[in-house]
Design a protein that fits this description.
Spore Coat Polysaccharide Biosynthesis Protein SpsA, Chain A; two-stranded antiparallel sheet; 10 helices; 35% helix; globular
Amino acid sequence: MTPTASIILVNYKTPKQTKLCLRSLRRFTRSPCETIVVDNRSEDESTEYLRGLPWIRFLENDNPEPTHRNGLDLGIRHASGDVIVAIHTDTFVREEGWLKTLLGHFGSNTMILGSQDRVILPVSRLNRFDVHRKRRKLNRRWKAKGRSPKCLTHCIVYRRELFTEHGQRFDHPEWIDGVYYDTGELIQRYCDERALEIRLLAREQLAPLFWHFEAATLNHVNRRSLPFKRRWRTWQFYRRADVQGILADDSLDS
């Protein structure tokens, strides 16, 4: 039986991406789910846009120091699904039935379902040999450490009991004993140490489902923040006819 899902996004001053992300979810999601959006005090047009959406559960992060980590924790506390699907606002759904396909990889004993590779446009130009060679190298390194490869978080699925029964959370110090821990990395270590199943999907398995722009916050894009090639790809992406069609379809907000 396919588990029910709570999709959680954390928004911070990304009006264009958040709109496209949510409208793509609305257009291509058919499986029963709830969508929770946490706003980290953006106080811009994205906040007003989110307040006007009747089909999402909108939460405002009232933490004195709002972060992506405590925003996720807030969303999880209000979630009711069996699994948590955490998506970044720069990740856009591109295929009908994506959620059913994604959860089809989520086994009965799986605690985390993620990816160890980023999905960056244009996926059609990937050198598969280089991708597989890099993946083998990463797997050997992590195996030597007795741990799973690090999961990337542009779209990652957690079983909710990790938080409700195992007491895990995202809002932890970034630096512990001189070691930096990225979002979700301690949760992954927790699962590794207790032999809880972590299932990783290959880049090629996620590419048909999502477009993802790594650190491509368009309203903050400038010559210093992103190289020209990535900025060019991002701008070209927003000129696509299908993307323009989603952005122009206001009925997806109702």
